[in-house]
């Protein structure tokens, strides 16, 4: 009986280890821009130093993404030569001293674990884009194209929201003084503001 219990425990622990997330951590000099391409869930957190932690279910999924900083931009991009194979999902935990621009393409979810603070923040997205972010910025521009749902809250002195395609931008809890918005297709933008 003891052997059976030990074998069961070893099997359970081995299965748990096999199901554990695979992880890579990168430390970079400061950057202000982020360019994402693939099937990515990104979690933003303000911090003193730039650090990127990437998790996936398999090591091979991590190998399909290239992570580098060129110029002033962090790139996390899927690069699989087989165009007919979909990009595996990864989670990116990004600690940053401040982000000014995000250019995202693919199946992207953007979340802020805390308030994104910057002079300005521009988010440009193409594809299936979802997100929930809190900001404290002087100028905010969000331009999304595709099937998109984004919730934005916090504060921005000036806001420019654009949505092309199908979806919605919810910004009722965004405190802003000046707002410009444009929605084309089956799209809606809801705002609050002063």
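^ Assign residues to that structure.
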């Amino acid at each position: 009986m003891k052997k059976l219990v030990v074998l069961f425990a070893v099997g359970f622990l081995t299965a748990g280890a096999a199901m554990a997330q695979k992880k890579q951590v990168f430390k970079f000099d400061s950057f202000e821009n982020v360019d994402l391409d693939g099937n990515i869930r990104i979690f933003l957190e303000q911090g003193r130093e730039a650090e990127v932690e990437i998790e996936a279910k398999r090591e091979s999924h991590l190998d399909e993404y290239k992570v580098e900083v060129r110029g002033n931009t962090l790139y996390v991009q899927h690069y699989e030569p087989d165009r007919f194979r979909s990009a595996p999902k990864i989670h990116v935990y990004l600690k940053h001293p401040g982000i000014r621009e995000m250019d995202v393409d693919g199946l992207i979810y953007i979340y802020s674990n805390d308030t994104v603070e910057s002079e300005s923040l521009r988010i440009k997205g193409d594809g299936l884009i979802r997100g929930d972010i809190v900001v404290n910025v002087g100028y905010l521009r969000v331009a999304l194209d595709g099937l998109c749902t984004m919730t934005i809250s916090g504060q921005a002195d000036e806001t420019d929201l654009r949505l092309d395609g199908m979806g919605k931008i919810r910004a009722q809890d965004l405190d802003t003084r000046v707002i410009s918005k444009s929605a084309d297709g089956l799209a809606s933008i809801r705002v609050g503001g002063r």
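The CA atoms of residues 146 and 165 lie 5 Å apart.
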